[in-house]
Amino acid sequence: MIPSTLHGPSIHLKKVSLQDGKQILLDSICGDFPAGGWHAILGPNGGGKSTLLKTLLGLTPHLGTINIAWACNPAQRRKDSSHIGYVPQLTPYDPSLPVSVRDYILMSLSRRPIWFNRKLPNHVIEAIRRIQLLDKMDRRIGDLSGGERQRLMLATALLRKPSLLLLDEPMTGLDKEGQTISLEILSSFHSAGGTILMVEHNWQLVQEYCDRVYWIDRTMKTYSSTTDFFQKTEHQSQRVPTAL
User: Fold this and answer.
1) Are 131 and 155 in contact (CB under 8 A)?
2) What percent of the chain has pLDDT over 70?
3) pTM of the model
4) Statement: 10-94+165-239 belongs to CATH 2.60.40.10
5) What is the per-residue pLDDT for 242?
6) Least confident of 7-16, 89-98, 223-232
7) Residue-wise pLDDT tens digits, 138-149
8) How far out from the chain centre does Cα 68 lie?
9) Domains of the chain: which residue ranges?
10) What gap in Å lies between CA 89 and CA 169, rounded to an integer?
């Protein structure tokens, strides 16, 4: 599912702003995400974390400059830039929709109609086995648990062979076993050289796995390491007076 070597891009933001009516969603954000890093995006609810990921995907009109610096080799650059893996926030799914796990995979990975060829390649079958959903191939998506849908989304994103992953709360809905499976897969992607931007609320997980922290609350503050972030956060919390 994951190549032995990836050429993850770096990302450079310069005065990136986004406004919805009178509401400012992103306010002149500047910063860099180094290539091959596992970058945690933290911040309060409504601070603009999901909006930033959608802006990087080109799904929102914005001001400012976003530069995704793909591999220097032109052939590799063309290959990488056509595939960004994206896992959106987990949302409710209508169980009445007649879309099976197999249908979802075929629609995600093939440009042909799903009835043209319903056979899945061996590497896809192996990927579905790795996320422990092989016995649910003909089950409707709406009948899966939230954690099973989340694992399916991650596997499908990776099967597109990206070198950049944008993940919006990918651990939501996962039980302990599901988290372990997903983190092993993401660790392999990171070790191979892929770049990860991950919105996450579990700070313990961030401290254990991520390289850098970016705090988003309309503006963006960059911390050089997770250690730097947690040390400064702890120091600031100690300075807050206790209410009597």
Assistant:
1) yes
2) 87
3) 0.88
4) no
5) 43
6) 89-98
7) 899 888 888 999
8) 16
9) 10-94+165-239
10) 6
